[in-house]
Amino acid sequence: MKTPTSRPVVLCLSGHDPVGGAGLQADIEALLAQGCHAAPAVTALTVQDTVDVSDFRVLDRDWVLAQANAIIDDLQVQAVKLGMLGSVEMVDTVLEIMQRLPGVPLVCDPVLRAGGGGALGKDEVGYAMRERLFAASTIATPNLPEARILAELPNGSADECAEKLLPYIRHLLITGGHGDEQEVHNRLYSRDGSQHTFVCQRLPGNYHGSGCTLASTLAGRLALGQELVSAVELSLDYTWRTLRDAEQPGRGQYIPRRLPLDFC
Fold first, then answer.
1. Percentage with pLDDT > 70 across the chain
2. What's the pTM value of the predicted model, to 2 decimals?
């Protein structure tokens, strides 16, 4: 007997990665692993592999709006996850979409660089996210290089970037792992002054899609009604395990294994 789904629906506004390591495929797999239903709306198409990105094209805003409106008209969206936007116009498109979802948690993954270092949008996109989109977001999840771009502090520490960015957003998770430290420190900052640091063992290798995995997992945990700090902690733990079990299907970076081998 078929019954309506009891799984929370998460609207994913992200780009498409043809090798499946990042972008919407990462969102879908990570959300399935949390017991959620992913409703993906494509914002951009990319030409990339496990080594780096070589080109991308942002979709027309009317197409993105049509996708999102079709989802919202049909499904009860309980969280939104943002990935690659790629243009200032797409920032405004997301704000228009969020007007239809008052009170729904929004996890903003400010995707500005691919894992291989290639740009996925001009720095002005990051500034537009900071100035306009952060106010509508529950939390942003930049890695330290992205946080430095957003804060306009090229050599800033996580603490310095957070101080610059918290006037724009309620919660900020700055992830580590971009230096040569043996332990990775992921820091959650809140506008009320509270801070939490989550430490994990550094894993060898480079990974394609870790940021997408973390942000979509967090959106799923919030859709399930979990409190923010514990949702962050569980999302970081899950992401670390996907990296521990990662595979190398191509010539470049490892791809997180977000679903167990016996998943069906």
1. 92
2. 0.94
